[in-house]
Amino acid sequence: MADDFDIQTFLPYLLNRAAETAGQAFQQHYKARYGMLRTEWRVLFHLGRYGALTATDIGTRAGIHKTKISRAVAALAAKRYLVRVTRDSDRRQEELRLTPAGKAVFDDLCKAAAAFDAKLAARFSPEDTATLRRCLSVIAAPVE
What we know:
With 144 residues, the protein is mainly alpha-helical. The protein contains 6 helices and 2 strands; from the N terminus they run ααααββαα. It has helices at 11-34, 38-50, 55-62, 66-78, 100-121, 126-140, and strands at residues 82-86, 94-98. The radius of gyration is 18 Å and the shape is globular. The relative contact order is 0.11.
């Protein structure tokens, strides 16, 4: 049985390779232009897309460990892309919000992401792209 196993066709391996290849290719844009790391752009994206969130909210939505979020928040705050606002309802929690500069970066990165996505999708037929998106969404959904 072990002789029949080929890691090159193992779905988790293929998914990981595809994600790493695509992620590193897109990273060239946000790292070169804004000096951001992957977790920073993911935090920025969530704030730009969903508005004010806590670090816990982002961790839950994005599946990022709280330590990585904390580092990303500190880096984005140092770049003046976000601010921390203490919640009136619970002074132990901070809401994270994009600054105008952070919103401008978010808008620029959304345009770059859309162009990058179109470039990736152009390698497939529209039908295959739709199938790929649907299948990846199923794989990414929590298993019940």
